């Protein structure tokens, strides 16, 4: 099979981790007889430097013309002061919006080999952590109207509107129930229905969709309680579905309890098969350019791309197994290093995983 991948290395550690994902993809291509064509997209801070904007139109067009998009990370302190319309993050929102990617899937799974790296007590970790966070991606407060006004007394007031329509909730709820059907058949819907109107609508629509999935258990949980339950009893969760901002925050918490933020992949999908795949972490400016980053989140994102966008489940599993085998062999990058393990650089980790594909 021949597939065109729009590759966005981005900023900070982005180019380093993307290089390792490509290394692994090339091994898959050789082993299974596929051709992956990489169309490099300049977006994020580096695009601001080169073109004056984080997502030039021709770069967005490359994404629209591809079979799928693979992203490293964008942003960094260098661009913290730029106008909000051209900020590095605006490139991501622009691509998600243009591609209609309304659902973001982030697995938070503890590799048993990394149990030591979890900040949770061994007695909690021993129960296992294997949940899928389904986050609504192109609605809610990040996309609502934003206003900063100066009042008559000179004080400034800012507001961000959190808006959801029924169809936006319904389609992401459906993704959660379909995902649960392929897993342990349990959906927990997260909201703040005791306070927010948008959450009350969220809850009502999720319940309506749940009726179409009688084989899937569905329950609600308030977002503040969820923040506690994720550290107290994470094994209770299978699929967690929530709106954009709650999902942004909770998925970082969920990733941390599994050991390292560098391990977690994500996929963003809309109606078709084209998606955007990226590790959940940022550009890690503190370790950029030092060959220290953990490339596993990006490599597993490439595996998700093969599974969800290219219908290559066997190839995806091959990558996941190669990652697991590499951890079994005692290899770690600095972020999840523990006693008795062998410490590898970013590129050495890519080599070891590619070798085991
Ligand atoms: P971050 O995720 O970049 O880093 C947080 C911490 O985790 C740092 O100590 C970093 O060194 C470490 N870390 C992250 N990824 C790692 C990896 N693969 N291997 C080893 N260690 C890793 O978050 P931040 O510091 O809050 O943000 C840095 C920049 O990234 C900001 O400009 C932010 O806006 C941007 N950002 C981008 C994305 C994205 O591109 N999707 C997401 C989040 C943040």
Structural features:
about 350 residues; alpha/beta; two-stranded antiparallel ribbon; binds nicotinamide-adenine-dinucleotide; 12 helices
Structure, described:
The protein is globular. The protein is of the alpha/beta class. It has helices at 14-32, 45-51, 57-65, 88-98, 122-125, 166-181, 197-210, 223-232, 244-257, 296-308, 313-328, 346-356; strands at 2-10, 35-40, 68-73, 103-109, 130-136, 146-150, 156-160, 186-191, 217-222, 239-242, 267-269, 275-277, 331-332, 342-343. Strands 2-1-3-12-11-4-5-10-8-9 form a ten-stranded mixed beta sheet, sandwiched between helices. A hairpin with a 5-residue loop joins strand 6 and strand 7. The chain has twelve helices and 14 strands. The protein binds nicotinamide-adenine-dinucleotide. Nicotinamide-adenine-dinucleotide is lined by residues 13, 73-76, 89, 92, 261-262, 278, 281-287, 293-294, 297, 335.
Topology diagram in text:
Elements: E1 2-10, H1 14-32, E2 35-40, H2 45-51, H3 57-65, E3 68-73, H4 88-98, E4 103-109, H5 122-125, E5 130-136, E6 146-150, E7 156-160, H6 166-181, E8 186-191, H7 197-210, E9 217-222, H8 223-232, E10 239-242, H9 244-257, E11 267-269, E12 275-277, H10 296-308, H11 313-328, E13 331-332, E14 342-343, H12 346-356
Parallel strand pairs: 1-2, 1-3, 3-12, 5-10, 8-9, 8-10, 13-14
Antiparallel strand pairs: 4-5, 4-11, 6-7, 11-12
Helix pairs in contact: 1-10, 1-12, 6-7, 8-9, 10-11, 11-12
The chain binds nicotinamide-adenine-dinucleotide (NAD).
Nicotinamide-adenine-dinucleotide binds at residues 13, 73-76, 89, 92, 261-262, 278, 281-287, 293-294, 297, 335.
